[in-house]
UniProtKB/TrEMBL annotation:
It comes from Paenibacillus oralis. This is Lipoprotein. The lineage of its organism: Bacteria, Bacillati, Bacillota, Bacilli, Bacillales.
Amino acid sequence: MRRKGVGYSLCFMWGVLMMMFVIAGCASSEPSWTNYVGAAVEKSFPVPKEANQTDNALNNSKMDYIHYSLKGLSESGGVPEAYEKVIEEWGWTEKKEESTGSTRVYEKGKKIVQLTIHDDSFTVLVPKQEDKAVIQGLESSP
């Protein structure tokens, strides 16, 4: 009788262990690309809600940037299509002539954002807009 109880216990534990393997195997390390929040450096630019902020430089005189970790990204793969679509839906347009390699440049009104994809991470960089004084009438000066 006692052996029967041990057998049932071992069978139950084996079943639980197998379920854990199945659940772990089904869990995806790829981002879902469904939920977004505004970037810490530019609230109107979307970042996946699953991304974790790792580094930032705010209030730099030339730029603000934020670095996020996000498993499943690949520098060679560039910006995933689902993410590109959401960026466009949020009103951003890619400036293809300024985009190079794994860095994409986006514009919305007078705002510029650079998005650089790395392996398992990405950086959102916002260059500071320089105030350029307009000098009029120099052509007609004697």
